[in-house]
Give the backbone structure.
Amino acid sequence: MSLYGELKRYVTSGVVPMHMPGHKRNIKFYMENPYSIDITEVDGMDDLHQPQGTILELIQRAERFYNTYNTYLLVNGSTSGNQIAIASSCKRGDVILIDEVCHRSVENIAELLGLTTVHVKRPPFEYGSKIPGPLRSEDVEDALRRLQDSGHSPAAVVVTSPTYEGVTSDIRDIATAVHMYGSVLIVDEAHGAHLTLAQKAGNLHLPWPEPATRQLADIVVESVHKTLPALTQTSLLHRCSIRVPEEKLNHYHDIFLTSSPSYVLMASIDQCMTWQETVGVMDFIRYDDHLNRIYNTAHVMMRRVGDDDRPVMRMLFPEDRDPSKLVLVGNGWQIAGLLREGGFEPERVEEDRVILMTSPGDDIENLHKFITWMLKL
C-alpha cells in the first residue's frame, strides 16, 4: 500500500486523535485541493522573504494579535524558529544556558554554531515523580552567577514552557534574572500557541497560563500546528523586545527558512489567524467548558480501580500546567492499551505516563467520548 493509501485508511478508521496537529482532522477546518493552490513565487503573488502584499498583511495581523514588535512566519516548524532565535542572539564560540528539557533543535544549532552549552536542571513535578517540574528562577540565577564568576557569561538562555507534559515556568521571574545578567531570554513555547487565545477568551473555568509573549521574554517560538487548527510545520517566531535587533532576525530567517516556502502552509497560518480573530474566542470558551468536565470526571474516577488487572492511574491536574495536556500517570503501556481499545490514539507513551493532547480544534463529540471512556473504567 502507498503512503497516501495508508493515510486514507488510517484517517477513516474512526480513531480519535488525542495528539497533534491541533486541527484534529476536524471537518470544520477545510482547505480545497492543496494541489490547486500550490505555487511558487510568481508575478502577482507576495514573497515571504520580501513581503510587501498579502503575506505582509498576514504578518501584521499576527503582530497585532500577539502584540509583538515583529512576528515571523515559519514553515519549517519551530525547529527553524529555535535556530533563528539562537543564531540571532549568539556569535560563534559563545556560552548558552539551556533548559535540561530543551528540544533537540537547541542542541543541534549549538553544535552548528560552536556554542558551549550549560544545562539547568529542574526539580521533579511531584515528590518521587520522573516528570520534570517548573524551572525555578533561583536555579537560573544561580547558574548565571556561577558562569559570570567564571568569566563565561551566557549570550542567551533558552527555556521550554510549556513542556511536553504541559508544565509551565514563571517566565517573568526568569526574565528578570536573565536580563539582570545581560543575557537574552528565548522561550520555546512550541506547545503554547493557544495561550494568547485563552487570555483573550477571558474568565474561563481552568487556570490557563499566561503566554511568554506577555512575560518579558525577548524571543518566543510557537508551533501553531501543535495546539491550534493549522497544518503540520506551521509556526511563528515573536520578537518581544528590542534586545535582539530586527535586522539579525531578518537575516537568519532568510538563512534557516527554506527558499521555497509553501504557500499552502502559509495559507494555513492565514486561515488559523482568521479563525482566532473571528470565532476562535467562542470556540475556546466551549473547549474550556468541556475540558473542565473531563477534569471534574477525573477527580471522581481516576483512583485505584481495585485488585483486577486494570492499571492504577490518575490524571495530573492543571496547577502549574497547561490544562490542554491530559497526563495519565501509571503503567504507561497498560494505559495506552486501554486507550487504543477505546479508540483513542495518544500523543506520547512512556513507562510511567501517557500524554494526550487536546486543542480548541477538537470535535466536542470526541471529548464526550473520552469522558464516557473514563466513566467505564
